[in-house]
Amino acid sequence: MNVLPRLILSTALLISSNTQAQDTSSWSDKTICRLANSSGTQAYVDETVRRNLDCVASSSGTSTPSLTDPLNELSLPSDWQLSMYPAVFDQERRLISAATIGQSTDHFWRPFAKGCYDVMSNWQKSLMWYVKNQEAAERSSAVTADAASYRLVHVNTCLDYYAQLPGMLGDTPDELQSLILGWSKANPFKLPSTNDRYYDGKFYETVSVLSVLSAYYAVYYDEFDYTANERQQVDSFLSDWMLKLKVRTRPEGGRKACHKGNIQTHVRLIRNHKIDEDTCGSLVWKEMVGQLLLGLRLGNEKLFKAGVATTQWQLNFFDKTGIFISWASRGASSMQYTGDLPTFLGLLTEIFASIGYDFMQHKIPNGLTIKQVMDRQVDIHQDHMVLADYALVGGAYKGVDADEFKEWDSLTALHLAGTNMKTMVREMARYVDQYRPDLQHLRDRSYRPSDMNAQSIQILASFHAIEPYKMYLGSTETQMVREDLIPPRPKRFDFKTKKSLIAAFKSLVPEVHHYDILYGNSKSMMASGHDGRYKVEWFFLNKDGTTQLRATDMLEIEGGRITFTPSGASIPTIAQRNGLNFKLSLGQLITAKGLVSSVEGSSPESINIHVNLNNSAGYGVSESGKIAYIWQLTKLEN
Hints:
- With 638 residues, the chain is α+β, with helices and mostly antiparallel strands.
- The chain has 26 helices and ten strands.
- It has three domains: 4-68, no CATH class; 86-476, Glycosyltransferase (Alpha/alpha barrel); 526-635, Lipocalin (Beta Barrel).
């Protein structure tokens, strides 16, 4: 009996075990990189993350830390700002909101409007329900799923709802502010053990919610009406979590992290289910955007550098043609996932542009520039079969067989993926403007909710609650456009006033959702048929949400022109009401601007009253926040 092979094997295992147990803190970066890439051992991978190393395999097969990557030289500016021209950024946001009027509470979103706050507030309970029913829930997001199957309210669809809601409202909703503040106090999130039976679902949803909403919070930071103590608490809560996630080091038990040393090896390990694709997939994209933006917003160098390291890691998983392997290998869903890549490439381009770095000229480890990677995304959107070598290998994904992929024409593939050429061009607008004159005919200068084939242009979702196009416009366009078509944005005011307004809306017009009145939205998209005479009742808002009827006037609309006739002595005075300036936008949105008083003899204050005629109600709050009036409109028979 030959015992020598066994002896050699036993000795090797013992040496390996002892090596992994040793303190690696004194080892050189080169040694750590070599061991992390060659063995994939978790302890070595963790050490590269701790040291913030970007280990790249050289042509000789050895591994060395990349010290020349220009991303390593980037630092936080002392006066970082997302947009040089905030008014342009805000204008595009209002255009999106105007184009999606009514969607926030229409029949599709109504279940989410009613249930998502409770679902997300009770995080652990809701998460456990989701992971126990994950297979059925995931089928609702499969590439061939119909919209009706998506209406199940759970943590995943609720993240999608909260990602899209601000876009539809044109503002940060109070419940999102309350939700994040509540989380910062209760800290209901936990990272599951990698051997947890439900690890995949628990980890995925936890990372997604924290990352996507951290990025949103960073971009719309000033819209969160927190006290100084609450602000500090939320800032610390989110930044601590964004440093703690380290997605690429947390593969599910029994599998390894993605293999970045060799693409062929990586593909083989994917097909053999030996690696956890989340360690180089959707979660990593979400995590990096959250880390970079929150780091920049808070001036947190450590967090920003963590985002840079996450970016460097993810750029290892493109093949030599610019295809992102992790998503291209998703069978029939390959185009569905790859369709989100232009958004992430656009986001990174705009984030790095905000600190003066041209990311499109950045070289990824295989030698391609990001511009060349973007070129490839155009190819893929024009012909989904570019992904076939990866997509057609393997079985079903989310219940859809890979063979269906090759049965689709390119237009069908894009439609089922929830994207189209216009969406791609919009999300990579800087690239299109600089390098692709052949795509300029697809460049809308303002948001349109659908393309020439009546396919939805969805710009916000559970992968990203922010959009690169607004960031691009806010950094390059010095002048606003189409201002005459855009309704003025309602004035932001304190939470107590908003709460009182909502109470009054529920009392005066219970049939209309308070979001619709608050943000000028409507379940009806009707922009015509509003000509006629209206009775306008002025209700003064008390602090407790009760109202006092102050005046009743007449308003007439004819051919887009407004005639307003005040009557009866009251407060506001006839002179003040007669001095209002009116504007009609989009055929349905009235703005009345002027000076009004709250009590006799008091100094008048400037106010903008906003009314969506489809809601028959609107409101205005003065600059000081001390005066608030609600209008209720009743259309009169001719």
